[in-house]
Amino acid sequence: MMDVLEFERQIAEMERMIAELKQPARRDEAAKQGIDAEAEVAKLEAQVRAAIEGYFSRLSPWEKTQIARHKDRPYTLDYVRLVFEEFLELQGDRLAGNDEAVVGGPAWLEGAPVMVIGQQKGRDIKERQRRNFGSARAEGFRKALRLAGLAEKFGLPLVSFVDTAGAAADLLAEERGVSEAIARNLREFARLRVPTVAIVIGEGGSGGALAVAVADRVLMLEHAIYSVISPEGCAAILWRDREQAPRAAEALRLTAQDALRMGLVDGIVPEPLGGAHRDVVAAAESVKRAIEESLAALRGLSGQELVERRYQRLRSIGVWREEPATQPPAD
User: Fold this and answer.
1) Under 8 Å CB-to-CB from 123, ≥6 apart: which residues?
2) Which residues, 6 or more positions from 1, have their beta carbon under 8 angstroms from its beta carbon?
3) pLDDT at 7
4) In the predicted model, is pLDDT for residue 70 greater than 60?
5) Residue 19 class from Cβ within 10 Å (0-12 exposed, 13-18 middle, 19+ buried)?
6) Which helix (H) or strand (E) holds 227?
7) What's the rounded Cα separation, in Å, for the pair 98 and 139?
8) 5-23 pLDDT per residue, tens
9) Which fold would CATH assign to domain 66-316?
10) How far apart are CA 224 and CA 267, in angstroms?
C-alpha cells in the first residue's frame, strides 16, 4: 500500500471510497437501493482529480520536499529499467571498493548507446543500509568519475540521475577523501568532451548532488528539490530548532520552479498528476522524452564546443547586477 502524506489524506479517503464502490458486492447492494454505482464512481473520480489539481497547484516548499522524499517515488534504477534497454551495471572505483549508493553502466536509449550513472537510495531498510540511503562515500564518486571517463573514451553521451540528501559525512567517508572526490568530479565533469545531461529526480542535496550534476543540460522533475543543505540542517543552524524545517524550506528556494527562475537548471520535467509516485510509468515516459530532447539539442557539437558552452554556463550561475545608488535630492 502506498504511503500517504498528511496533505494527501482527504484524497486517499476518497480513493478508498471509489475502490469500495467498484467491488461487485457493493455494486449489487447499490443497485438494490436504486443507486447508480457507475455514476457515483464517475462523480467521485472527478472530485478526486479536482482535489489533486487543487492541492498540487499550491504546494509549499516543505510539502514539495516531502514529495521529493516519498518512499514510493521512483529511484534511479526504476528509471533505468523503464527508460533504457540492456543496461549493464559496472561496479567498483578500481581503488578501494564498490559503493552501492552510486549505480551506473552502459545502456541503450532508442537504439543509441549511452552511459548512465545515478544515486540509489533503496526501498527497504536492508537495501537502504547497504546503499547508505543514497549518500555516497569517496568510492561512489570515484566510481561515477570512472564511468564518466569510459563515456568520454568511447564517445557515449552521459546521463546522470541525481537523488541524494547529500554525500556521506561519517568518519569513514572523511578518511577516504570524500571532499577531494567531490571536488575532482566537479572539475572533471566540467571537462568531459561528450554530451552530458543531469536530471534531479528527487533530492538534490549539496555537494553530493553537484558531484554528478555538472552537465550541459540540467533538468529537474516538477516536485524535486535542489539545495545547498537540507531544510532540517538549515533550521538547526539558523534557529537551533529542526522543527523550523518548513520555514527553512521556504527560505532556501529549493523547488524546481525556484531553480529554473534563478537559472540553476535548464528545464522542468512534468510529473503525473499527484506526483511521480502515483504513476511511475508515466513519470518515466516524461523523463525519457526530456532526455531524448536534451541529447538531440546537443548532437553535432564538437567536444571543444561542449566544454566551452559548459564553461560559460557555469560562469553565468550566480550573476547579479547592482543598481547604482540613488542620489539624495538636492537642497
Assistant:
1) 71, 75
2) none
3) 65
4) yes
5) exposed
6) strand 225-227
7) 6
8) 666 776 777 777 777 666 7
9) 2-enoyl-CoA Hydratase; Chain A, domain 1 (3.90.226)
10) 12
Output the DSSP codes for 232-247.
HHHHHHHTS-GGGHHH
Length of the chain: 331
CA separation for the pair 169, 225 (Å, rounded):
20
DSSP structure string for 36-61: -HHHHHHHHHHHHHHHHHHHHTS--H
The domain locations on the chain are 8-58, 66-316
Long-range contacts of residues 204-208, Cβ cutoff 8 Å, at least 24 apart:
204/162, 204/163, 204/164, 205/164, 205/165, 205/166, 205/229, 205/230, 206/166, 206/167, 207/166, 207/167, 207/179, 207/182, 208/119, 208/135, 208/136, 208/164, 208/165, 208/166, 208/167, 208/168, 208/182
| Residue whose entry in the numeric block shows the C-alpha cell 472527478 | 46
Model confidence pLDDT, tens digit, residues 132-174:
999 999 999 999 999 999 999 999 999 999 999 999 988 988 9
Which amino acid is present at 120?
Answer: Q
Q: How far apart are CA 259 and CA 301, in angstroms?
A: 26
How confident is the model over 247-261, as pLDDT tens digits?
Answer: 999 999 999 999 999
Query: Pairing mode, if any, of strands 112-119 and 102-109?
Result: antiparallel
- Output the nine-digit C-alpha cell for 256: 524546481
Cell 522542468 belongs to residue: 268
pTM: 0.85
Q: Are 218 and 264 in contact (CB under 8 A)?
A: yes
